C-alpha cells in the first residue's frame, strides 16, 4: 500500500522515547545481559528501518519475524546481529548466509528436510527454539535438542543460542509461567552442551520476572513505551509512548435534526449538530468497530458518529472549527490523552494489534 503524505493524517514517532525506554529496561537488568530489540511487523508499526538505525548502538542485535524483514534491515545498512524468530524453509538458507542472518531451528523434521534437499548448512548461525508450553514451534524434549546439536555440529553450523517464549508472562497469575520456566530449565539441564546465549525473556518477562532472565532479553512492546499487559499489571518504572497519530479536519458542516451520517444511515442527529470529517478509515487500520469511540479536538473528546468508512470518519464537534484544526487519534491533545491501550479496550483486543494494524498508507514522521 502506497504511503499518502499528501493528506494530513500522519504518525509521529519519537525516537528519543524509544532510546529512553530501552535504557529504562537495561538499567534494571544485569549489565552483562544482552539486549535484542524486536522490530518485526515494521517495528510494531513504528517503522523498522528508522527505529533500528536510531537504536543500533544501544542494543546487541535485532529480532524479526521472517527473512524479508531481516533483508530490509541489511539493505538499510544495519550491521548488527539479526535473528529471524519464525521458521524459514530450507531453500532460503543461502540468502540467510549471504546476508549474515541468524535463523531459528525448531524441529528435527526441518533438519531432515534440509538434508534430503541437499542444502549446505556450513557457516549458518542458528538459535534453537524450545516449546516449553506455548504450543507453536519448538523442540519439546532434551533428547531432540541434543540430536539437533549433534546434526548441526556435523554440518558445520554455528549454534549461537537457545530460547523459549512464555505464554502468560503478562498475566497476574504466575502458575503457568512457572511451569514453562521449569520445563525450559529441565531441558537445559538435559543437554550435552548449552549454547552461549540463552534467552526466554520477552518484554513482559523483562518487566515483571527479571529474576528469571538468563543472559539475553528480547524487548518488543516495552521499547515502544506501552504496557504489554494492557492494564492488568502496573509498570515497574516509567515508559514513554513513542507513537502518536494525528490528522486534521478537512470538512465541517452543520446538520439539522434528523439528518443521517455514514453508510447504512445508522446515525441520525437528534438536534442541530456540527459534524467534522477526518481523512482516515479502516484501510488505514482505524477499524469499523471504532464507531462510538472518541478523538480529541481542542482538548475535547469528540465521538465518532456514523460508520467508519474505508478512507474517512465523521465526528460530532462541540462547535464549528476551521478546516485544518488538529485531531488527535492516539496521543496527547491539550493534556487529554488517548492511548493505544484505551483503543484496544474499545476493540476487545490488545494494544499490540492496534499499533500493528496502522497501515503503511499513513506516513511516519520521525522526531
Taking the sheet with the most strands, its summary is: 10 strands, mixed
Q: What is the number of beta strands?
A: 20
Summing up helix and strand content along with how strands pair, one would put the structural category as alpha/beta
Strand content: 25-35%
Question: For the CA atoms, what is the radius of gyration?
Answer: 24 Å
Q: Report how far apart the termini are.
A: 23 Å
Mean pLDDT: 96
Low-confidence stretches: none
Features:
eight-stranded parallel beta barrel, 367 residues, 20 strands, alpha/beta, ten-stranded mixed sheet
3D architecture notes:
The protein has about 375 residues and is of the alpha/beta class. The chain is built from eleven helices and 20 strands. Strand 18 and strand 19 (about 335-340) form a beta hairpin. Helix 1 crosses helix 3 (about 50-55). The longest helix is centred in the middle third of the chain and has 15 residues, at about 175-190. The relative contact order is 0.15.
Short description:
The protein is an alpha/beta fold and 367 residues long. The protein has helices at residues 15-27, 40-44, 48-55, 67-75, 93-98, 108-116, 142-154, 175-189, 203-208, 340-347, 351-356; strands at 10-13, 34-38, 61-64, 81-87, 102-105, 125-129, 158-163, 197-201, 216-219, 243-248, 251-255, 260-261, 267-268, 273-278, 294-297, 300-305, 313-317, 326-333, 336-338, 364-366.
Task: Describe the protein's topology.
Elements: E1 10-13, H1 15-27, E2 34-38, H2 40-44, H3 48-55, E3 61-64, H4 67-75, E4 81-87, H5 93-98, E5 102-105, H6 108-116, E6 125-129, H7 142-154, E7 158-163, H8 175-189, E8 197-201, H9 203-208, E9 216-219, E10 243-248, E11 251-255, E12 260-261, E13 267-268, E14 273-278, E15 294-297, E16 300-305, E17 313-317, E18 326-333, E19 336-338, H10 340-347, H11 351-356, E20 364-366
Parallel strand pairs: 1-20, 2-3, 2-9, 3-4, 4-5, 5-6, 6-7, 7-8, 8-9
Antiparallel strand pairs: 1-10, 10-18, 11-14, 12-13, 14-17, 15-16, 15-18, 16-17, 18-19
Helix pairs in contact: 1-3
